[in-house]
């Protein structure tokens, strides 16, 4: 073989090697090159699903990629988290996270199929939200003070409904009992719609529902308080639990985005930047408020600190050590 042939073969080999290395070490600007899936642990129709689709659309438009929302419901978000934890850490699988999968289930479940401490890396928080305590219109309680007094007169007899064990509503009630020194009786339902029907129909005397649901049914139920530290814009005349006399009460909740551990740092940074961009603007805030949500962008570090503090807070509320 002559010298020219050797040079020709060498150039082909070098080109092949360069192409292979380039494919494995894409520059940040090359990401994403294929569809990105966003796994959501909640069913279609709720505020988690609606808000995740809003962010997926905006991030997809900004990044020039197709973001596909994949609903994997069940076990308080743990099924979705398990799927995401097993995905390749390449930036093409994101988890729409919530306190249930990352903090609450760690406290109430003994054998989760993933380690919430090590399986994920935070990208950033997306939205915050809270609940509202509602009672039937014929309830003798017209305020939180009256509701608490009634509960103290009849310890363990006052019933309340929630979306299920470990749900945001259940946690809100647990915190109320701890801080107000009362004991209530829990009725778990299969979802917010079933719970609201039960309260309106007289099956349940009270319930913790989303502020969106509470506002939509104000002519059919009485709203005693919201569970966040500031009044909800959609319910401006409804006091917070703290204003109602329950000191240090804060049952605020959030959604955020996580990725599997091992995802390249430059991709995590890019996703955080794009997420902040997606959360900006009056249009997004208007759409979020219509779902009872508040845009709350954060850095990855701030989100990690929030998850850690939330775990400690709810561990005390639930009574686990």
What do these coordinates show?
The protein has eleven helices and eleven strands. The strands form three sheets. It has a six-stranded mixed β-sheet, with helices on both faces. Strands 8-5-9 form a three-stranded antiparallel β-sheet, sandwiched between helices. The protein has helices at residues 3-24, 47-63, 78-85, 99-108, 144-153, 168-180, 192-201, 211-216, 265-279, 282-289, 300-318; strands at residues 36-40, 67-71, 93-97, 120-129, 131-136, 159-162, 185-188, 206-210, 221-226, 253-260, 294-295. It has 321 residues and is of the alpha/beta class. It is globular, with a radius of gyration of 24 Å. The model is unreliable at 1-26 (pLDDT under 50).
Could you state the order of secondary-structure elements as H and E?
HEHEHEHEEHEHEHEHEEHHEH
Question: Beta-strand level of the residues, as a percent range?
Answer: 15-25%
Sequence of strands across the biggest β-sheet: 2-1-3-10-4-11
Helix content: 40-55%
- The class by helix and strand makeup works out as alpha/beta
Number of helices: 11
Q: Name the average pLDDT.
A: 89
From the spread of the alpha carbons, the general shape counts as globular
Largest sheet: 6 strands, mixed
Rg result: 24 Å
Which runs of at least 5 residues are low in confidence (pLDDT < 50)? 1-26
**What is the number of E strands?**
11
| Terminus-to-terminus distance | 75 Å
């Amino acid at each position: 073989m002559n010298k020219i042939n050797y040079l020709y073969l060498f150039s082909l080999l070098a080109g092949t090697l360069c192409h292979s290395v380039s494919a494995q070490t894409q520059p940040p600007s090359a990401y994403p090159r294929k569809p990105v899936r966003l796994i959501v642990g909640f069913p279609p129709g709720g505020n988690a699903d609606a808000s995740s689709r809003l962010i997926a659309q905006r991030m997809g438009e900004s990044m020039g990629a197709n973001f596909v929302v994949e609903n994997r419901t069940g076990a308080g978000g743990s099924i979705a988290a398990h799927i995401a934890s097993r995905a390749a850490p390449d930036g093409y699988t994101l988890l729409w996270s919530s306190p249930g999968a990352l903090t609450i289930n760690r406290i109430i479940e003994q054998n989760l199929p993933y380690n919430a401490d090590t399986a994920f890396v935070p990208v950033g928080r997306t939205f915050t939200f809270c609940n509202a305590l509602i009672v039937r219109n014929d309830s003798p309680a017209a305020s939180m003070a009256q509701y608490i007094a009634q509960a103290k007169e009849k310890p363990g007899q006052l019933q309340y409904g929630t979306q299920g064990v470990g749900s945001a509503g259940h946690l809100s009630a647990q915190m109320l009992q701890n801080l107000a020194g009362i004991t209530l009786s829990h009725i778990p339902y299969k979802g917010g719609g079933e719970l609201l029907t039960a309260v309106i129909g007289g099956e349940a005397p009270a319930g913790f529902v989303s502020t969106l649901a509470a506002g939509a049914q104000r002519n059919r139920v009485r709203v005693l308080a919201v569970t966040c530290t500031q009044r909800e814009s959609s319910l401006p005349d409804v006091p917070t639990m703290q204003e109602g006399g329950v000191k240090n009460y804060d049952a605020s909740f959030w959604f955020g985005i996580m990725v599997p551990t091992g995802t390249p740092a430059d991709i995590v940074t890019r996703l955080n930047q794009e997420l902040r961009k997606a959360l900006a603007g009056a249009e997004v805030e208007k759409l979020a408020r219509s779902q009872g949500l508040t845009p709350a962008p954060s850095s990855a570090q701030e989100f990690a600190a929030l998850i850690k503090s939330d775990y400690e807070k709810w561990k005390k509320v639930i009574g686990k050590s």
